[in-house]
Structures are given as structure tokens and as C-alpha cells.
Amino acid sequence: MSIGQDIDEILSRSLKIKRRSILKACAAAAAAIGTGGxxxxxxxxxxxxxxxxxDDALETVVTSCAHNCGSxxxxxxxxxxxxxxxLSSDDGTHQRGGCYGKDTEEEPQLRACLRGRAYRERIYxxxxxxxxxxxxxxxxxxxxxxxxxxxxxxxxxxxxIAIKEQYGxxxxxxxxxxxxxxxxLHKSDQIEGLxxxxxxxxxxxxxxxxVPSYQGTTTSSRWTFGTIEDGSEDDTFAHSxxxxxxxxxxxxxxxxxxxxxxxxxxxxxxxxFVCIDPQYTDTxxxxxxxxxxxxxxxxxxxxxxxxxxxxxxxLQDQPFIDKFVQGMDPRSMPDxxxxxxxxxxxxxxxxxxxxDGRPKTPEWAAEICGVAAADIEKLAQLYATTxxxxxxxxxGPGRAAYGEQFNRMAAALQAMTGNIGVLGGCAEGVxxxxxxxxxxxxxxxxxxxxxxxxxxxxxxxxxNNYPNVSREExxxxxxxxxxxxxxPNIRGIFWQxxxxxxxxxxxxxxxxxxxxxxxxxxxxxxxxxxxxxxxVLLPICTHFERHxxxxxxxxxxxxxxxxxxxxxxxxxKTDFQVFTELAYRIGNKTGMGDRFGQVYNPRxxxxxxxxxxxxxxxxxxxxxxxxxxxxxxVEMPWNEFKRLGIYKFKLERPHVGFQDQIEQxxxxxxxxxKIEILSSELARIDDWAKTQYGYPIPSIPxxxxxxxxxxxxxxxxxxPYHMITPHPRNRTHSIFHNIANLQEACxxxxxxxxxxxxxLGLRTGEVVEVFxxxxxxxxxxxxxQRCMPGVVVCPEGTWIDLDDEGIDxxxxxxxxxxxxxxxxxxxxxxxxxxxxxxTVLEFRPGWDESxxxxxxxxxxxx
Length: 862
Ligand SMILES: Nc1nc2c(c(=O)[nH]1)N[C@H]1C(S)=C(S)[C@@H](COP(=O)(O)OP(=O)(O)OC[C@H]3O[C@@H](n4cnc5c(=O)[nH]c(N)nc54)[C@H](O)[C@@H]3O)O[C@H]1N2
Ligand SMILES: Nc1nc2c(c(=O)[nH]1)N[C@H]1C(S)=C(S)[C@@H](COP(=O)(O)OP(=O)(O)OC[C@H]3O[C@@H](n4cnc5c(=O)[nH]c(N)nc54)[C@H](O)[C@@H]3O)O[C@H]1N2
Ligand code: SF4
Ligand SMILES: [Mo]
Fold this sequence. Notes:
Blueprint: H1 3-16, H2 19-33, E1 59-64, E2 74-80, E3 83-89, H3 114-117, H4 119-123, E4 133-135, E5 144-146, H5 149-167, E6 172-174, H6 194-201, E7 206-208, H7 215-225, E8 242-246, H8 259-268, E9 272-276, H9 282-286, E10 290-292, H10 299-312, H11 318-324, E11 325-326, H12 347-352, H13 362-369, H14 373-385, E12 389-393, H15 403-416, E13 452-454, H16 459-465, H17 471-474, E14 492-496, H18 500-503, H19 507-514, E15 519-524, E16 536-539, E17 548-550, E18 558-562, H20 575-589, H21 595-600, H22 613-632, H23 638-644, E19 646-648, H24 659-664, E20 675-676, H25 680-683, H26 713-718, E21 721-724, H27 740-745, E22 750-752, H28 754-760, E23 767-771, E24 776-783, E25 791-793, E26 832-838, H29 855-858
Parallel strand pairs: 6-14, 7-13, 8-9, 8-12, 9-10, 11-20, 14-15, 15-16, 21-25, 22-24
Antiparallel strand pairs: 1-2, 2-3, 4-5, 4-16, 17-18, 18-19, 21-26, 22-25, 23-24, 23-26
Helix pairs in contact: 5-20, 7-15, 10-13, 10-14, 10-15, 13-14, 16-19
Bound molecules: ligand MGD (2 copies), iron/sulfur cluster (SF4) and molybdenum atom (MO).
One ligand MGD binds near residues 69, 249, 724 and 729.
């Protein structure tokens, strides 16, 4: 029997499985496995250092930082025995041919940011989840007791089987996400993750297709260029003459390893900088940018005004448009458009108002976006006449209602000025500049099996309103079988590498939904706010405690080795160990025996639970040999890579997105082979309800009024301020929230303009209640002119800390965000109207008064 047939049979057996056989198998498996091999509660042992060791008494291990943080840098662990005493970063010595202090334009160091340098405090934090825990109180109450691994995994596998038996193949919602997505082996991810593989093979999985980070931007890049690899490497920015930072603050929100380094080179060579953002960012300050404050969510209107100016002065790059673009103007419309259901208007006709009688002039735009028409014209002139110019349209403005229209409109500007495919220009968008060989764990046709796939921000709505939910409300991805359009009856959630209760929108709706479920499982390294709502907490070790290789984050052509630096703390295990052991248990309980575990993790035996290292090494080595060396023509052998710690690709020329398409005439990977300002896909859709979008989307970029904005005069009567929720400097979303030093360095606060603060009688440091119909939070204010009037800036990712009234004393803006879906799947994180009032209630920046301890979770029922 071939391996393919073999797995097919497993899958079909798992699809057919009947309750009686499950029960029988459960009893048999329990008898066979027993519990002995898996229970290992170590005695607690404490010791104190007498002499603080100096560096030469420490062992040095080169490794890398993890998580979904915007970049990938070198961390160097200095350890004594099994304890990391200190962390440092790249100093020039760790790359091939390096020496102390080496830091060149070609090969700059990969130096860590404040979060990476603080990592030691995360490893040894009081909030580390060290033992399996089982809930004893009500869900969300935060009361747990310690359990053995055996008990926890028995509970999870039994419940999984029972839920599938009763509710079918869509009943478990996979909410794994990017906490561990940038390692090649221990992966959390919707598409290539370890959890999805297990639940899919078990044939009980609803997956979540829209990504919080950049769904608007992704759909835009896919429609326009046919790929999300629209990025240029950061070193190309050093060649720009003009950089327009449109909702982009890389000094603060990382987007690549050495972005600011290359921007500094550009500045030294005379590049001009413009920043379009409701807040005056650190990046704008550092590069002395022309700051253009804009009403949040109105960027597409401003860009339309710029396009009008460029067209009406004839400043567009017409030869570029004629050759490379579809649908920019009547000349570049395809023949089929005239008879398509949804695609008869070209972009230029829309901009000039040919059919709707409304030219999108700078004056028209100024009314909507609040930027003076003269400034819109000045910027349009500058952009159209400076070559090369990089208009970097980032993800924040796209993380909003109809966010995809912002990125599509930006692509139209990039294309009409011919700034695509040229050194120093920019086509981003998503900005992915390299496709790494990203998967070392088993990866085959069984890795991403799902029985429903929903818009990720709709899960709570689906649970709360089931069965009265339409396919468009759920944002169901179409299927070609009988499950097409079937809204899932979600009965359980699995979190792996995600703190989604904290991180998705409208937390109050999520809390209502989570209380209705039958099983909530959380695999994590710390006790997160989501974890407090789980039934079972499974402790996972950090990347310092397991073997892997780190991938760069969208940009950077390199790999960094991640050896196991110390043994796992407490009883923590790797995700792969836990899922493998679960697979063995499920297999044995459902009549499939050990085969299920073997297929799930083909290089391992069940002893993987006790000794993962040789298997992990085998996966990584095979990945290096078969993928990196064979496919990417890397000559460095695995052992040398392990010794050095870093492999950097040397490129023959700076990597510029779409350079070959423009210079060599290679077609773009779109239906037409051109840059599609008119989307071939959208123009031909006639039944929107049958698509994952659910609702109509224009075929060309257009300005669409968001759900809420400063222009909604009725809504503003109750909620006059627009809140935006950018990413925090000191955290990776919710990770590092509990690090006291980082909280001290970057306290959580909401920025508000001086005029608004005066009206409300507020001074810096005073605590306010911020509220709307969805929720209430407390946060101290920071009064500043760096934020435009009418707008408040509250970073995402703080751990919720709800009081008895349901007010979040920790200031998490996701109590206020809406879960209403944008058709293309953009999360509306930056589309929030709120009101603000002074309060005497106490803000609680951490978990308790000392702001770092979770003793209230562990202090009972142990
Ligand atoms: N208001 C607002 N909300 C936002 C955003 C916003 O702009 N505004 N941004 C959104 C964006 S872009 C994103 S990407 C999401 C992020 O949402 P999440 O991915 O949920 O956020 P993180 O805080 O990074 O949580 C990752 C979790 O993974 C855990 N983890 C890390 N490594 C491992 C591992 O190896 N194994 C396991 N099992 N767990 C691990 C961490 O401890 C952490 O709890 O947040 C979104 N939320
Ligand atoms: N330090 C740090 N770096 C990170 C992360 C982190 O958590 N911390 N997370 C990583 C992840 S997962 C992601 S997805 C990326 C996110 O990267 P981005 O999406 O680029 O980051 P944000 O900080 O959300 O937004 C960037 C800027 O957009 C502005 N902005 C918000 N709304 C609007 C608007 O309507 N119009 C305009 N013009 N500007 C607007 C914000 O003020 C902010 O300055 O960052 C990555 N890098
Ligand atoms: S940017 Fe990311 S990878 Fe780099 S040091 Fe900071 S947290 Fe680590
Ligand atoms: Mo993200």
C-alpha cells in the first residue's frame, strides 16, 4: 500500500468513525497505554548564584528571536549549565567572514531590538506556563488546578472524539496563528501549521482564512499583481529620491531587519521623506519628514485626488501604462470588459467622474480626508516628477473597513507613475521580498484539510447566532462538495501560538461566544488572557528550549539556526510533541492504532514524547539538504550552518519587486499577465453570495465610506473621536506584556491632541474611560500635538483585565473594535468611533499591583 493510499484510508476511516467503536477503542487504549510513562513531576529545586559568572565562564550560543514581531535578528545566549545568564546580539562576528564590529551596507549586522534583548525575562517570567492545568471554576474565571500530562491529554482526546461524533467535521475551530510561524519545524499557522495538520487528519476542523495582519493588503496585492511577493529588499530604499511613508512607522513597528539603516543611507544621499499618518511618528521625526495628518480611513480618497491631479496634468507615465497595466484608462481596458457583469468602467473614467458626474478632484478629496487640496496637489506633483520614488503603502490603513481599497488605490498611483520594477521605486503592498523554504515538518496533501473556512473575525458572531447565520455573514470560502455554504456549528476552539481572544475584534462578543462552547484548549508558553478562558492549558517550551531554524519576516534573504539552548522549563513540551502524542491517543481510541500517530509525525516513534531531539535534527537536516541546498543552491552544509549560526544569501543585484516583469517583459502572475487595476476576477463575479467575500466589491479601486469615521456626523454625536490602534513598540502584540522593564520603558497610554485634552480637562497621566456601544476600557492619556485633533492613538495588545462591571482596566482597544466584516476580509481594527470621559477608577497596567505576577491564577486549588 502506498503511503498516499494509506493516509487516504486513515482519513476515510476517521471520517466514518462510529461512536461505539470510539468507546471500545478508548477503553482498550487506556488499558494498553496506562499512564506511567508520561507522568514526570519533578521536584522543585532552587539554588542561588554565589559568584556571578563572568563571560569567559559562560557558554555562548548563537540563536535567534522568534514570534510574529516584524523582523528576525540574532540573539546570543550566554549560559551556565541550564541557565541563560545574559543575552546579547550580533556584533559582527557571527556572519560568514565576520569580525568584531563589521557592519556594512552589503551585510549589516542583525542587531536585536528592545523586545529581543528582554527575552530572558520572558523565559523566566512568573507567568510561564510550566505544567498542564485544568479549569476548576467557570470558564473565564481563571481558576485552574495542576494536572498531569496524561490526564490533560486524555481529557482533550476524549472530548475531541465526542464532539466530532456528535457535531461532525466542522465542530472544532482551529485558531492557531503566528506566535510560532517563523520557525520551520515547530509551526503555528493556519495553512502549514502543526495543529491544522492534526485536526485536519482527524477530520474535524473549521479553519480561519482572513489574516488580521493584512487581509486588505493581501487581497489587493493578489488582485493587482497576482502575488503577495510585491516587495523589494530593504537595501533598495537606499536608492530612493523620495519616500512616502503611507501609514508606515518602521522605527517603531518593525517591518524587516534593517529598514531604518537603509532609510538613513537614503537620507544621507538626499532623499526627501513624507509621512501620511494621523500621528506624527518616530520615523517621521527621525527623517524630518513632511507630516500630512489625515483622517483615519480616508486615505483612498486622498489618493484619488492625487490621481486626478496627475491625470489632469498629463503627468502619468503613459508608455508604462500602455505596456504593463490593465484598466487604468479606456485604452487599457480589455475587450471582454464591455460585456462583463461588473467591469465596464476604467480607473481614469472613475477618477474624472465620466459616468458618475463626480470628478475626484483634490477639492473633493480634501472634504473627505481633511488634507488641504493644495497639499494633495503638491504631493501629487512631487510623486509624479521625482524618479525613483517609493510610495510605501503599508498595512495599518488597510487594517480597516474596506482597507483593500487603500492598497489598491496606492497600487494605481505606483503604476501610473511607473515606479514599479525600478530600483528605488516601490510596489508594496504586502512587501514580501523573498520566498523562504519555510517548512521542515511533514508537509503533504494532508496538511491543510478543512471542512469549513470562515472569515476569522466572524467566529463569535457565528457561535452567538447559530444557526441563523448566512454564508455571506460567515464569509465562507467556497468548496466544490456538499459542504459548500454550510455554516459550521462550532463547539470547540484550539489555540496554538495565538492569543486570539485578546487580539481579535469585539472581545465582549467573543466572551459571550466562548461560554457556549464544549471545549477550549490553549497551547502556550505563558498564561495569556485567552488561556484564562480555556478548559485545558498545555505548557509549551520557548524556542530557547527546542531545536529549529528561524525565518526572516517578509524581508531578508537569510536563515538563522536556533539550537536548543537549555532544557525545557517545568514540564513544558514542544507543540510537535504534544500533537504527536495526541495523534497516538486519538488513533488508539478510534481503532486506527499507532498508525495515526506515525502518519502525523512520520520520522518519530511514540518515544518522541521523551526524546524529541534526534527526530527534530533529522527533520531539519533533511529540510536543509533537500530544500535549501537542492532547491536554493546553497553550498554550505548543514553542520557548517549549525556551527556559524547564520546563512545569508549574496544577491547579484539588489532585489527589486517585479524587475524582471518590467525589464524582460515576463508576464505578471495575473489572469491578463498585466498589473490589474481592473481586476479580471472581480469584474466577472455575478453572484457575490457564493464567494468568500459575500458582498460586492468594485472591480477598480474606489473610495468607499467606512463603517465609522470622522465624516459620519450622526454617529459622531454620540462617539466623537476616532481611535486607531497601531502596533506597540515594546510588545509583539500581546507577547512581552508582562515584562516589567518593557512596561516601564514604554507605558501603555492613549495619545490625544492638546485641543481635545483641553476640552475634556485632561492632563498627561490622567486616566480616562474610553467607550462605545461595544465596550469600555480604561487608559491613561498622553497629551501631545503629535496626534491630530479628533483622533486618539491606543496601541493594541495589552492583556485584558476585566473588572466586575466588564470594564477593561488594562486598556485593550479590542473591547471597542467591531467584528463587522469588510467584504475582502480586512479586519476593521482602525475603524472605531469612541467617546472619552475622565474617571476615578484605577488603571491596571499589568496583571496585579506589582504588574507582573499571576499568583491569583496559581494561588488556589493547586
Ligand atoms: N486592535 C488591534 N488588534 C490587533 C491588531 C491591531 O493592529 N489592532 N493587529 C492584529 C495583528 S496584525 C496580529 S498579527 C494579531 C496577533 O495576534 P496573536 O498572534 O494572537 O498575538 P500574539 O500576542 O503574537 O500571540 C501569540 C501567542 O503565541 C504564543 N506563542 C509564542 N510562541 C509559541 C509557540 O512556540 N507555541 C505556542 N503554542 N504558542 C506560542 C505567545 O505566548 C502568544 O500568546 O493581533 C491583531 N490584533
Ligand atoms: N514593535 C512591533 N513591531 C511589529 C509588530 C508588533 O507587534 N510590535 N507586529 C508585526 C506585525 S504582526 C504586523 S502585522 C506589522 C504591522 O505593521 P503596520 O500595519 O505597518 O503597523 P501599525 O503600527 O498598525 O500601523 C502603521 C501606521 O499606520 C498608521 N495608521 C493607522 N490608521 C491609519 C489610517 O487610517 N491612515 C493612515 N495614513 N495611517 C494610519 C498608524 O498610526 C501607524 O503609524 O508590524 C509588525 N511589527
Ligand atoms: S525585531 Fe523581532 S526578531 Fe528582532 S529582536 Fe526584536 S523581537 Fe526579536
Ligand atoms: Mo500581524
